[in-house]
Here is the input.
Amino acid sequence: MKIDQRDADAALGGGEVHSHSSWMLPFALFVIAALIGGGVLIYLAGPTVEDLSGNTPSPTASTDTADIRIDGVSFRIPANYTRFGRGRSSGDQDKVEMYALLPNMSPWSPGDREKFASNAPDSQVVFFTLAVDRGRFTYEENFDRAIKPAAANPEGSPGPFGLTEFKFTGGGYQNTTWYTAPLDDGQFVARCDPSANLAFGASCMRGTRLPGNVGLTYQFKQAHLSQWKQIDAAVRGLVASFRVK
Here is the structure.
């Protein structure tokens, strides 16, 4: 027990003297230090705002499904195809981002962890997204109307694997190559871009609109361009299997 300065002043003034535990100050300092340490630990190792919002990639092997509506169109999507936690909540969504492995469009699994994480030039990962698409023109129409006329070869040139090739040397599409081909139900249009990091190789992206104002975009490594027809059929077939009849 001790008398602090306040009690000493009180004693000199004839006031009442209170006893205080000598452990109170160290205990208070300990509590403050613990709170600060806990806050730092949470800041460094705890979930971020992005984590809590479901915006951080979080692979899962779960096959649980979510009933998702995109502009009123219903899809039942297994969790192991989704890249982000927000894509695993039933209800209305503006977009759902997913991925799968070529050649069979297999979902994420612990055994394929390294394949899904790979960004090598021959990576087998296909990234695909379903999103609301109410644009005036489709991806293919935009290419025909606004992009193709700006190509170095607007009429196109014979390309590899049965594709027609369009090269761009200036404007917003400089150094990109576009490929087209007729399909039974429309037109295949894909854009291939080189990566700033040569170790990653080039990637190709195709966009199209599905019935019901649902846009489908998918991306794969250009090393697999020879399989463009199989990849297109596999992606669209998988998405069709998610659609609630």
